[in-house]
């Protein structure tokens, strides 16, 4: 099947065990810290005949943030960063899609972190389609966008003696998506 095969059109749900919602931020101006959110859900409608009719939404549980360091993860859950008790979810809802070519798209949508909703554009690459051994139709995408965390009231940082800040303002969001077509006959 090709990227434009209309037979792929339909409702999809994220396969959370084969999908990654990740991020990268520079730490102490010398290295990158990578993390992800372990709990999320998402669904959408993919139209491979007319991609502009496609839609999607994702809800991420902030409490599930994981950078591989429990102390840092605990700090990320506080008001210094995400304030998980007050704002337990991060949401994204698509508002449009632009086809660049058969594999590349620009997905626009509203991203809400804490109490702020702003439009973002995510560069998405269609990575293929396959029927898995259980008969499920799957499609894959990879995506990336860069945002300024301060635009979402994620403001904590500390100045470094040599200049710069402990945590970069620029954060790259990374997505590796496996979505399964919903069987509408069931």
Automatic annotation (TrEMBL):
Full protein name: Polyisoprenoid-binding protein YceI
Family according to the record: Belongs to the UPF0312 family.
Organism this protein belongs to: Stackebrandtia endophytica
A Pfam family the protein falls into: YceI
Coiled coil spans: none
Lipid/polyisoprenoid-binding YceI-like domain segment(s): 11-180
Gene3D superfamilies hit by this protein: Lipid/polyisoprenoid-binding, YceI-like
Position of the signal peptide: none
InterPro entries: Lipid/polyisoprenoid-bd_YceI (IPR007372), TTHA0802/YceI-like_sf (IPR036761)
Source domain of life: Bacteria
